[in-house]
Design brief:
Elements lengths: L2 H17 L4 E2 L16 E13 L4 E12 L2
Length: 72
Amino acid sequence: MSGFESDIQVEIFTILDAGLSYPVYDEVTYLPDGMPATNFPYVVIGDDTAIPFDSDDQVGSDLTLALHVCSQ
């Protein structure tokens, strides 16, 4: 992942974390068997895919980012 995709993912995390009343994670949380599931609901920022493009006057990429919302 090149620099600006990381920056976009950080910005999305920051906006979601500030705007939601439940946790936002970068990775799926691990919940061992038998542990109470008190951390629901939560959002996980998933993998992103960047398809680069450049034209005569622009350089960039089309970015797709997955958001997973987990609830019971």
